[in-house]
Amino acid sequence: MKRSIKLLTAFAVAAVVAATAAALALAGGATTSSGTAVKIANSKLGRILVDGKGISLYDFVKDKGTTSVCYGACAALWPPLLTKGKPVAGPGVKASLLGTTKRKDGKLEITYGGHPLYYFVTDRSPGQTTGQGVDQFGGPWWVLSAAGKEIHRG
Asked: 52, 84, 144, 148: least buried by Cβ within 10 Å?
């Protein structure tokens, strides 16, 4: 009985550690000492914004300018692209369109062309755009072009 409890406890701890590591990897993007990288990648929707690891980035039409309205359950499904410094413009990205906005918790979220940027929780590999056009939390979510414009197809 004691052995079963120890095994169950070890399994539960391992599951929590694995889930935490996965969430941090998804929410962190690829960072450098100065900040999180944003680049352009080819996709079935055309050339779109992605993080430094190639994971698709989205904007939310309900955001108010550069101010995010996605918190709580929304941010659990659509984690914000965060940075600890000035965002880094990767290949194809216009540095003049990159910026940041401060979230309610004080963390810095990256913006592009005035749009706060988010991941979609089911996009786990480069090229996936499963959040494209999804209508959740009061509005649709779209990937962005290199020009910072929403792509409304797919």
From this structure: 84
User: Residue 4's pLDDT is what?
Assistant: 39
- Give the start-to-end residue ranges of the domains of the chain: 2-143
Tokens representing residue 75 in the block:
């941010």
| Burial of residue 134 (number of CB atoms within 10 Å: 0-12, 13-18, 19+) | middle
User: Which stretches of 11-107 are assigned E, i.e. beta strand?
Assistant: 37-43, 46-51, 58-60, 82-83, 88-89, 98-102
Q: Which helix (H) or strand (E) holds 55?
A: none
d(Cα 87, Cα 36) in Å, to the nearest integer? 5
> Would strands 37-43 and 46-51 be described as parallel, antiparallel, or unpaired?
antiparallel
Name the region of 19 (left: φ>0; alpha: ψ -120 to 50; beta: rest).
alpha
What DSSP designation does 151 have? P
Using the structure block, give the residue that is written with the tokens 């990767």.
90
In the prediction, which pLDDT does 14 show?
Answer: 35
Percent of the chain with pLDDT over 90: 77
- Cα–Cα distance measured from residue 35 to residue 98, given in angstroms and rounded to the nearest whole number: 12
pLDDT band at 136 (very low <50, low <70, confident <90, very high): very high
Residue 146 banded pLDDT, cuts 50, 70, 90: very high
